[in-house]
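Dear all,

This email documents one entry for the complex benchmark we are building for the journal club exercise. For each entry we list the sequence lines for every component of the assembly. Then comes the predicted three-dimensional structure of the complex as a token string, followed by one or two observations. Please use this as the template for your own entries, and keep the labels exactly as they appear.
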Amino acid sequence: MSLKDVLWFDPRRIFIDGEWRNAAGGQTIDVENPSTGEVIGAIARGSSADVDAAVRAAQKAMDGEWGRMTATERGRILMKMSAIVLERADDLAMIEALDVGKPLHQSKNDSRALARYLEFYAGAADKLFGTTIPYQNGFTVYTLREPHGVAGIIIPWNYPMQILGRGVGAALAAGNACVLKPAEDASLSSLAFAEIAREAGVPAGAVNVVTGLGTEAGAVLSEHPGIHHISFTGSVGTGMRIQAAAARNVVPVTLELGGKSPHIVFDDCDLDKAMPTLVGACMQNAGQTCSAASRVLVQRGVYEEVKRRMAEIYRGLEAGPAVGSHALGPLVSRKQKQLVSSFIDIGRKELTVAAEGVIRDDASDAGNYVPPVLFADVSPDHKLAQEEIFGPVQVLIPFEDEDEALKIANGTEYGLVAGVWTKDGGRQMRMARKLEVGQVFINNYGAGGGIELPFGGVGKSGHGREKGFEALYGFTRVKTVTASHG
Ligand code: NAI
Ligand code: MG
């Protein structure tokens, strides 16, 4: 299967003001297939002039047809986009498999999730209410929820369709116009999304997609004085730069910066239920998931059994070409492979390997494959138990009791998600209260999932909430109107 078979638009152009254009600088960036290392196409390398044109187009949309639409009309357009995404779900999944190296069964899930985000926000668009506030006699006071205006949305390469869905979907529902900057390693599905927006009749300028490098197009977008809100998902370092850029224009930012999320497994839990999730919640997308459960904290009474059963699952894990739909595909880029391999090398020198999976024989040497590796008996302060690896690597950490589990779980700079596995209801509630994270799963774990569920972090995992209804509050500002009756 080649890219040409599934693309129905020219990926070397950018989408501004409702039309496809060549980037001002005329340069392109190669698109590589991570499964084979082959160059399979090219995208435009957008620069300052393109970002500027996109921001101006978005402002024009706010002042024009898009800004005048009712919430119901915006919802209908989002619903239409959702329907087209579903019609194109298989093509979108194949595009993502070829561009990002995501196994087909996972990229199909991503295209369905994109449709679902658009559907959810379509329904929510005209249910976003203000409040009336009791005040002094002779006054009526109410609040309006207004869009910020032009939203800059910078997304990473790991779940392009899901992350653009939750960002652009919520931003549009709330009435903003968007400039989307996808990651240079994974831009094709965002361009497909632009074409779908065009087909659905989104007014010119409400959705703009500028591809390019983070340090060029991304940096210019985050610094642009015409942007009123920035939503970013990606690394801590880039998140800090974006927050600093936003500070210069005094605009709000939502940052989702990944984590080092723990599963916390108590002696009394239902191990049969937990086992596949303990591994799957990290191996999904080969560990390149912000909410990957990369630490597995296990109470001493079941530690040996969990280690043995996880090792058994690991030995059956295979990494292979994305279109083969194996448990794992390759990593997105050579850079990511080097980064993850350097963690694995440290682990092999300093830690105990409990088990590892295999790279299949049909996986090209030029692809970005790494084997899944499980390390056992890891000290909570070891580098591999502290830093985000963003690859198929988990560490097993034993603990004695609830207090120690909490200390270890809360003992990193991050705080995105935690999973708690126990049948004890009181303990479930205590843990949920005391875990310093944005989301707690009790006897389940939803890495990346849950369109309806507010999602975001504490600490270096970021701030602000994506997904669910909560995201709509982030994409709006409140205006208070105080009316005197006299
Ligand atoms: P990154 O944070 O540099 O890239 C994410 C997005 O930001 C891309 O669209 C990129 O073009 C853009 N960008 C880069 N520099 C920018 C700048 N100066 N101004 C504005 N935009 C900029 O992440 P990268 O280098 O691709 O991955 C490195 C590590 O980041 C990963 O190993 C992982 O630990 C973490 N990460 C976390 C993600 C999450 O889901 N929270 C997603 C991707 C990466
Ligand atoms: Mg690619």
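Observations: The pocket of NAI (ligand 1) is lined by residues 154-156, 158, 181, 183-184, 214-215, 218-219, 222, 233-235, 238, 241-242, 256-258, 290, 339, 388, 390 (CB under 6 Å). The longest strand covers residues 139-147.
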